[in-house]
């Protein structure tokens, strides 16, 4: 693939001693899973395809919206309403026909994550979703896949390298660095975001991904880069101990004997998580305890209220707690 025309395309990166013909062959042999084709995913995808990553799987259930265009310059006004994963496939294939782009028009959930992650060499978390980040981290830790995860809010954010198994060992997971639920429940939609901020973080994710593929040292796995009002700071967390915490499950994983508590009020979600779920937005510090040996499932939209309720409940109950992020009611 890197013969003739291909060599010419990648000449400017192949001249780097860190890349060369061997590194380029590694890049072309790599399969990268990118979850999320929004403000973080768009720049990451463009630079990965530009570098010649051979196989890219992009997972995103959303369609292009007018409010995306200011920070997702890959999309055109004429594509409003088109699934983002399809728009990405069209754009990247047009720019570099040698790259195979697979579009998955779905949410990333604990049900489909293992198979998607197992098929890939490396995972990029560009979804900026609390439940997706922890689902990917738990799965990547289980399967030994490296994870490059980023998050942006307002004028700040971070990108970090987690999990993975390489000759230098395994990097800690996202839980090791962020064991507690964040204080802010805000999202880009509610807090706002500037295009270049997510653009910088997405580019950083692509750079970290290529560094992992090329085996560059120091490894980006075990390193966090923070962006705060235009200033970048970095630190390493290689020795951080793993933290236990409630795991996310898929709706299809709910068992008949689970106690399901839906934390969403009726006006937010007229239909409960399951027909016999207990609807209790204040659950956690108070509320009925599960029976001995019974598993508890805490359900909400993003997973954040569930995590906080689990945190409060764990102080008065030591049984199994799982989390369910249901997303927006369809």
Brief synopsis:
The protein has 330 residues and is of the alpha/beta class. It has eleven helices and 15 strands.
Polypeptide structure, described:
- This protein is α/β, with parallel strands linked by helices and 330 residues long.
- It has 2 domains: 227 residues, 3-Layer(aba) Sandwich (Rossmann fold); 79 residues, Oxidized Rhodanese, domain 1, CATH 3.40.250.
- 31% of the residues lie in helices and 21% in strands.
- The protein contains 11 helices and 15 strands.
- It has an 8-stranded mixed β-sheet with strand order 3-2-1-4-5-6-9-10, sandwiched between helices. A 5-stranded parallel β-sheet has the order 11-15-14-12-13. A two-stranded antiparallel sheet has the order 7-8.
- Helix 5 links the parallel strand 2 and strand 3.
- Helix 4 runs parallel beside helix 10 and helix 6 crosses helix 7.
- The longest helix is centred in the middle third of the chain and has 20 residues.
- The chain starts with a helix and ends in a 5-residue tail after the last strand.
- The model has no long low-confidence stretch (mean pLDDT 90).
- This is Thiamine biosynthesis protein ThiF.
- One of its GO terms (cellular component) is cytoplasm.
- It comes from Paracoccus yeei.
